[in-house]
Amino acid sequence: MTDSPLESVRARYRLAVGAEAAAARAEALRYEQTVELPPEAVSDPFVEKEILPRVEALGPAAGGGFELVLAYPPGVARAEPASLLGVLFGNCSLQDDVSLTAVELPEPVCRGLGGPRLGSAGLRRLAGVPEGPLTCTALKPVGLAPDALAELCAVFARAGIHVVKDDNGLADHPFCPFAERVRACQAAVERVARETGRRTLYAPNVTGSPAAVARQIDLAGALGVRAVILEPMLVGLPLLHELARGERELALLAHPSFAGAPRIAPEVLLGTLFRACGADAVIFPHAGGRFARFDLATCRRLGDALVGPTGGLRPALPVPGGGMEVERVEELLRFYGPDVMLLVGGSLYRAGAALGERTRRFVDDVRRAAQRLAREAS
Amino acid sequence: MTDSPLESVRARYRLAVGAEAAAARAEALRYEQTVELPPEAVSDPFVEKEILPRVEALGPAAGGGFELVLAYPPGVARAEPASLLGVLFGNCSLQDDVSLTAVELPEPVCRGLGGPRLGSAGLRRLAGVPEGPLTCTALKPVGLAPDALAELCAVFARAGIHVVKDDNGLADHPFCPFAERVRACQAAVERVARETGRRTLYAPNVTGSPAAVARQIDLAGALGVRAVILEPMLVGLPLLHELARGERELALLAHPSFAGAPRIAPEVLLGTLFRACGADAVIFPHAGGRFARFDLATCRRLGDALVGPTGGLRPALPVPGGGMEVERVEELLRFYGPDVMLLVGGSLYRAGAALGERTRRFVDDVRRAAQRLAREAS
Question: Is the pLDDT of residue A20 over 70?
Answer without folding.
Answer: yes
